[in-house]
Fold these 2 entries.
Entry 1:
Amino acid sequence: MKVVTTFEQARDAASGTVGLVPTMGFLHEGHLSLVEACADECDTTVVTVFVNPTQFGDPADLDAYPRDLERDVALAERSGADIVVAPTVEYMYPSGARTTIEVAGVGDAMEGVHRPGHFRGVATVVAKLFAGLRPDRAYFGRKDAQQLAVITTMARDLSFPVAVESGPIVREPDGLALSSRNVRLGSGDRRAARSLSSGLLAAADRYDEGCRSTAELVETVIAELGSEGAVPEYVAVADAATAEPMGRLAGSQFLAVAARVGSVRLIDNITIHNDTAVVDRGTRLEAPSILYGGP
Ligand code: AMP
């Protein structure tokens, strides 16, 4: 496996069908499930590790973001990556860079309200990865459901010749969605952190029992958050493709939550396919994540 810092080096090392897995590093099984899917389907699997400053509104959050490239390289290689690209901030954003990408509408609600400018940073950096690495396929997690809608729309609108693929949310054995940020949770925060997934999963159960009211599903999540001390930013139902908030169930939508647990901001969601009455709850690990035990 090669570790490189520029797009050109990565392109030189790649051959055949190229798959891309963009990450901000501090890898866990959620990222690695995407690397494995990519390695199964593509000749060359490229993993990028870049903590993208333009998608952070809060400098303290950017500073506190966990980083360990050596660990990431070992984990990516084990999961089938051929190339890890770890560019510098100066390479990605040379002085004088002025162009940004705004995906109108899709990024406005939910995360867009609470993290102004976040999706501009995400869409711009992913467009740069698509342009610089020219992947045939790119893999994203449904953990970031609104981000997936933003990127799918951006790739279509700008005619990037890339197939945007998505993978299921990977959860801890207790349901908590894996996130690199989970390592910042204190031991006393765990119950509150778990309330995001337990609220969503309780809402999924209500859906399975026949509930079709978005207000009741949202209320189920909020009640669970409140009882465990997580501070909700939003709980909403939104169209899976456009991320537009929806007042009633139709087609595919996600029920999404963002909440603060201490100083850590967490997000999670389930996807409801109302046409087939199937809820995608994601997958669960059988043992605690490598986030806590090291590789
Ligand atoms: P990040 O490093 O947080 O920017 O995430 C990189 C990619 O991994 C994104 O496409 C995320 O949606 C995906 N991802 C992060 N956490 C999970 C998870 N728990 N399950 C599945 N995919 C995930």
Entry 2:
Amino acid sequence: MNPHNIEMLNKQFNLDGQLSFLEVADELILIKFSNTHGRGSLTLQGAQLLGWEPWDQEPLIWLSAKAKYQKGKAIRGGIPICWPWFGNVESNSDLPAHGFARNSLWQMKSVEQLPDDAICISLQLMQSEASLKLWPYRCELTISYMFGKNLEIELVSSNLDQSDIELTEAFHTYFHVSHIEHIRIDGLDSVQYIDKLDQGKIKQQNGSIVFNGETDRVYLNTLNKCYIDDPGFKRRIGIEKSGSLSTVIWNPWVEKAKKLGDMDINGYRDMVCVESGNMASNSITLKPGEQHKLHTIYSIETL
Ligand code: TA6
């Protein structure tokens, strides 16, 4: 049976009407869901969360007003899953940036009612002939999103191969903010980072991160919880993580936003990416049979 049959999906994963599946542009299947904590949506393509809006808050997650829903291409915004590599592969420019997981069709695995009216939606990515051509390893990938008072996400990589597998990965999370020039990010003081806009130089963070131009940094060897302090929305977003040694901070600013093509010219003002993962010198090596869990908890504190 086609695992992407809308009727079957709505029957099997309805969770008493809290989830509904619909086909949008270009055969993309969208899952819409809501509970007493909020409402959201995600696509089967990339298992990409497109939005999460707690009822009493501004949306937590940003989605571009010019997002394009194209088969096989990541949608601008939400939480693209960068896996099994982060960024570009130096040795092979033909390989897609940020890996193939975010462009691939995932399958529903389960939906579950949790305590406190939270819901858990789990999906899995099976290797395909196409993906094996890009990356010749048998590795199962599952993701679980838990929508409650907080938003929790867990990505589990399982090495089903006979050889060691090296991974880099990240939740490429676009957070919605009141104005990029009015926020600051705390939690990375004194942490070393790669400045991707200054020839990859290694620098050290001094105090909070504030934004006055394009910013693209990979903070290394840090387990720290970060905070987005947003006085405009009268809130602090907490970004707690485990199984992650790297944190990426990114905002494209004006010129890069123009080049992206799927972001409004001023879209950069309403978002900031704080990406929990493992990359550069923090790559992960899984031996045959080993698993790795990348886990984040996003919370909101009203100021
Ligand atoms: O996470 C930051 C980054 O690696 C930037 O360098 C920029 O390329 C961004 O990801 C967006 O990448 P994408 O392939 O989604 O346009």
